[in-house]
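Final report, Chapter 2: Outcomes

The project's central promise was a pipeline that accepts a single protein chain and returns its three-dimensional structure in a standardized token representation, suitable for archiving and comparison. That pipeline is now operational. To close this chapter, we reproduce one record exactly as it appears in the project archive, with the input sequence first and the structure output second.
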Amino acid sequence: MKKVIFTLITIATFFLTPLTSEASHFRYGHVTWTRVPGTRDVTFTITTAWRDDATESFTFNFGDGTNVTGALGTEIQYVPGSHRVFQLQLTHTYATDGPFTAFLYDCCRISTLQNGADGYFTVSSIVCLANTNIGSPLCSSPVIIEMSVGATNQYQLITNEPDGLPISYSTSAIQSDNYIPTVGGNTASVSTTGLISWNTTGAVAGQLYQMKVSLSDGCAKSEVDFIIKITACSSIPASA
């Protein structure tokens, strides 16, 4: 009888336990920061996109041994049948100049990706306060960038650097795995000016690929994590 009761409790626990951390909802992430000049008071802006009907939360690590777990923030965009975009601002005071690697990390990516499906995601930003920097580079990339099938596609990332410093760009690994879109021996790349290029010959219309790009001003750094969708005919200009 005790065994039966234990089994029923176990089953009930399974069905009643929230499955948020195991959901395949994550579409996009971008973490940037600014600070009050002359202080170590830093404000993070965390932009994320999730399945349109998902209710999520995540833990944000400030990189100094402290973290916070909470809701996604304010909804700033809704694309019916696709996704919702949220923005959250967090303020944190650091005890030293760093640098610190602040990041969000959780599970899971969407299951329909050709690379990194159902995988954990991490999006980071390096905070360095030893000089006069007032913030990290930021990017206004859409959640989903469309590229035409069987062609060489280009997309110009629109970025800004609050200190007026030049930005360098590079593809960025996901944990120890480098999920850079590749098909038919052709790998997506980003130039020193933020121009994404990819020959999609061998891809199939409707496929989804994850890509992450790192932006650095030589001190502060941020990452933008987005999806490339292969279409029969792109609805986004090759360079926009």
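Archive annotation: Confidence is low (pLDDT under 50) at residues 1-23, 236-240.
This record, like all others produced under the grant, will remain available to the consortium after the project formally closes.
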